[in-house]
Amino acid sequence: MLRRSLLLATLATPALAQARTLRLIVPFPPGGTVDLLGRLVQPEMEQRLGQTVVVENRPGAGGMIGSDVVAKSPADAGVLVISNIASHGVGAAVNRAMPYDPMRDFTHIGLIAAVPSALGVSATGRFATLAQFLDAARAQPGAVRVGSSGNGTTGHAKTEMLARAARVELTHVPYRGAAPAVTDVIGGQTEGVIAAVADIGRNDRLRLLAITSADRAARWPDVPTFKELGFPTLEANNWFGLSGPAGMDAAAAARINAALVAALATPAMAQRLTDLGTTPNRMTPADYTALVAAELPRWAQIVQEANIRAD
């Protein structure tokens, strides 16, 4: 009888775990790249896990508020977050009062996408190439203004990376999001914007001069990479993945990773990722953990050298 009871308990545990609703926290407002990726994977994950997956937007502080919810949750709380380059990379370097440790306080499960950034200018403006853009910056130091989605963001960091690599002086102009930054480029208030291609790449009033991926994106085959134009340090994608609280059961993390990898491999999802300038991946939890660990010191060095601050 005891052995039978133990067997029944063992069989029931996975079923109970699968019946639980999973909360997927998107630590940014609706409408942006992070929110888009969350809502793309939500139905696919739901189908493969056999669980209800509820997307919950918890924006604020560059992704830290939503991420901190997961960092402070019990390991078995059934809550995940879309960890990303802002909340788990650049943010750790620019925010001195980080409420969590991007490695110690999370179980990193898998990569959803690595989306490149691009330098965009007005489609009707005077710059047709990156060389022309940089020549203008050399001719009038500080006169070329580059917008980003805010101080201490990846766009800010990449603007400083470009200025240092090209040995020019660019004036960074922070905005509250990519949309107003794009508006000012089109209106002529600034000369350029650096942001994720998902946010700026489908605007026909912008011209993309260069992209930060290792290779040209299938979605924008005519746009050269910074690397091929002589700036290899500008190979820097915006990565987004799934992470849970620290101490998650390894089998549970592996099950979620398997569902994620299968979801990303579907033809429909592969096409959506192509539209965002990226491709499906098969990262394991160990792979994604290693990616986050490698990115932290890289951005810490960049932020320190350029004296980038979030305020």
Describe the protein in words.
By secondary structure, the chain is an alpha/beta fold. The protein has two domains: 2-114 and 238-306, D-Maltodextrin-Binding Protein, domain 2 (3-Layer(aba) Sandwich); 117-234, 3-Layer(aba) Sandwich (D-Maltodextrin-Binding Protein, domain 2). It has helices at 2-19, 33-49, 64-71, 85-94, 130-139, 154-166, 178-187, 197-200, 250-264, 267-275, 285-306; strands spanning 22-26, 53-57, 79-84, 106-115, 117-122, 145-148, 171-174, 192-196, 206-211, 238-245. The strands form two sheets. It has a five-stranded mixed β-sheet, with helices on both faces. Helix 4 (85-94) runs parallel beside helix 11 and helix 6 crosses helix 11 (285-306). The longest helix has 22 residues, at 285-306. The protein is globular and about 60 Å long. It starts with a helix and ends in a 5-residue tail after the last helix. 45% of the residues are buried. Residues 1-19 form the signal peptide. InterPro entries: BUG, Bug_dom1. It holds the Pfam family TctC.
